[in-house]
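Complex record, four chains
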Amino acid sequence: MSEEKPPPVALTQVRVRYAETDQMGVAHHASYLVWFEAARSEFCRQQGCPYRDLEKQGYTLPVVEARCRYRTAAFYDDELTLEARAVSVRTRRIHFVYRVMRRGTLVAEGETIHLVVAPGGAPRSLPQEVIALLRGESRPS
Amino acid sequence: MSEEKPPPVALTQVRVRYAETDQMGVAHHASYLVWFEAARSEFCRQQGCPYRDLEKQGYTLPVVEARCRYRTAAFYDDELTLEARAVSVRTRRIHFVYRVMRRGTLVAEGETIHLVVAPGGAPRSLPQEVIALLRGESRPS
Amino acid sequence: MSEEKPPPVALTQVRVRYAETDQMGVAHHASYLVWFEAARSEFCRQQGCPYRDLEKQGYTLPVVEARCRYRTAAFYDDELTLEARAVSVRTRRIHFVYRVMRRGTLVAEGETIHLVVAPGGAPRSLPQEVIALLRGESRPS
Amino acid sequence: MSEEKPPPVALTQVRVRYAETDQMGVAHHASYLVWFEAARSEFCRQQGCPYRDLEKQGYTLPVVEARCRYRTAAFYDDELTLEARAVSVRTRRIHFVYRVMRRGTLVAEGETIHLVVAPGGAPRSLPQEVIALLRGESRPS
């Protein structure tokens, strides 16, 4: 009997910046996409393929869809924990999900879908070793 | 026999700012939520209930869900036309949809869902005259 | 007897976006640098050398110094007029000044200093025809 | 013989976010003001008077002047150390200076000047105990 391993998760801490608030007195909803991105960066680094390196090797991962559900407000100076998981890593398409937590409370959750393209925008295929790293099937050498 | 009127649409022009680009050389995906918001502001103003005034009267419309599908990249200095429509206006919940166009090309489309709350966060009900204005069923007096 | 012509000025309109406000209820002070940049873009376009084209020709103008004095607050939905002037245009260095006005009121004023470099960062010299255009000494052909 | 104590300094780490880059491939110059603000927040917290608490007590510190000198570019994913110091703390005016370092390299330096006002904008005087804390003359109780 094989057991499914849960997909790996990366945790990132952010503190809500004053510039990220709006006049409603809460973190502006667009800030969450920027936090998701920071969480995704941390995920890739932790899995052994920093996004910075991917880009240097000619793989860019533009967002083709983004979604966020806001459960409760986040406030200036709040310490938030971002969770990022790659729920699907395919040759030309990656799907990430995110959760924003403040201590035990779910603040927001969301997802992004990315294509794999060359810098000019042409489709590209992620190498198998990168796919395995992002899936948590192998460890960085 | 009554005929369904299509929901009103507001058009807003934006020019992509340099600060809105990222090192992929395109407008960053979080910028679109900011543009949607500008389009929503314009929609409310056009319908006769500027969001600024709604807030002054104690109605805030926090985003509880946002979504964007990116069809093609937008570039620095591009002139974009934003379309905003309120597809559902209810007492405590409003649903907007958006399209980002560059001349005839669809660049992105998205939606946001908003609750109606008092400044402290308690649920509030939009007055019927505001609902009628946002639905395009009446004209500003 | 020669007469000094005043340096050309470009005017740009912006409306303060909700995302640009902070929990103090005013436009966040970093937004002004983004507005200055939009005003500078407009200035270059008006003078006949759009910044987009300059970059395509291999001239980038990174900011080496920026300064802003905030005279009074700007608020969500305010319509602001941005004034941009190039007070000094030299082969390898350009100095812009800006004013942010709300109807007759001075909201802020600032300046930026830019170097002229190649995309990799090496110093480059602006062509004489670009210098003349930015100084307003010649008109775009 | 009394010796001048150097003003206290707070150190904050930030990692350059992808959203903070622009199409020049570097961190956008407006991002530095946001980092200065994060550094200032950390400074106030470290000195025992978190800015969040100051605002709750009715003291806001709007920026009336900001300045930054950019020495070299910062790149996506760079780990930067922000230094913040309060070089002058007076009843109604505070002057902060900042340095942005990447390992041993000075990336940028800047300053901000703040007034002390009530939420509505009227001048207010900082209490002596807050002044002493920010100056590092006393420790938080």
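Note: Chain A is about 20% helix and 35% strand.
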